[in-house]
Design a protein that fits this description.
415 residues; alpha/beta; eight-stranded parallel β-sheet; three-stranded antiparallel β-sheet; 17 helices; 37% helix
Amino acid sequence: MSAVLTAAGFPEEQVRHRARHGAASVFPALDAYGSSLLGAVPAGADPGDLLERARIVPPVFMPERLKKLIDLAREPLYTDVELDTVVGGFTSRLPLYVSAFGSTQVASHDLGEAAGRQAARLGIPMVIGENVVPVNGYRSASDAEASPLIGRIAAYADAADDEHGGVVVQQSTEDADAEVWNLVYSDPASEPLLATGRLAFELKVGQGAKPGLGGLTVLGREAAGRVAEQYATDQVFGADSDSVLRISSPGTFTEEILRQQIRLMRNNFPRVKVWVKLHPGRDIALAAATAWAAGADSVTVDGAEGGTAWAPNAFLGQVGLPLGDCLTRIGRTDHCLLASGRIWEGSRAVKALALGARAVGLGRAALLAVDEDTDQGLVRLVESIALELRLLISSVGKYHVNALADEDVLLPTSQ
């Protein structure tokens, strides 16, 4: 390293890091792979995060509280707030769902199944992410060792009651090539969910952490060789490294392609609910409206703050609309809109719900909670969020989560 040049006020170390490591420096440090959950800048540190800067604003006069008082024949308390709702066609005990983890090493077989069991006990939906089958293969429930996808479905179904929650299976381009939805639809492990209307398929158009890109994960060369027919790879970590970057296709969509994909889903899989996941693109309102008009039961908006997996550093803080901007562009609607992106506590959740989301997703927060305690961690996390939801919703004089409205949130004015 030269000691001649300095660059005060310039990201000198970052430039030197790129100079030392080349293409690999575009990504987070490799030794963090498999043990770190990556996302945008920490909560409160992003000046562009509309939800962080917004405030929940209780009124002085509360006619809905008076209605509740008359109904109960006593003064209402925060414990009287009802949180049950319908999430993408599923009856859910809470306005929450577990977001997709996908095929990355962080969402291991054990953590994925533990998250499924706890989500089922809570009565909230769970999404299983893309690329699980192309990477790990598919083995039905009748095999000696079921694949991670079927293992997660079975773990959820075994712990769930017959009324609440549901499982959502996501599909990407490579999943479509592997006929993931066909396999799941015909597997006996899915029948209990199909019979009770609690299975959905989600078309993945994009994701918050990498808008416009497909999935990226790191594989050893031996593992990369096993999936070479399904995925391209890139030796960004050097020709002498055992690690390679596995590249997934982002897929190609126009309004007509999206409409036709949704219609095909409804025709080919009539027993499932149809979900669509969008990345935080600048035309998010048009994309959501297109999906609903084509018959989607739910549209998920993954804000730029979202993500549990591997993404280039440049994308984590610089690409895509923040979740709050996505919600304000779409506006409140009678359709089911789901939202994810740095949700881990009640105030951010309430703001998103007030701006139009029917429910909010837990991604990194869910994984961390399950990693902390595989039996009760997610349950405890959700319990804490539910308490905050009740406190905050009652503070604006309302007693059902679906009564929240944009009047309950003060958005920051432009500077």
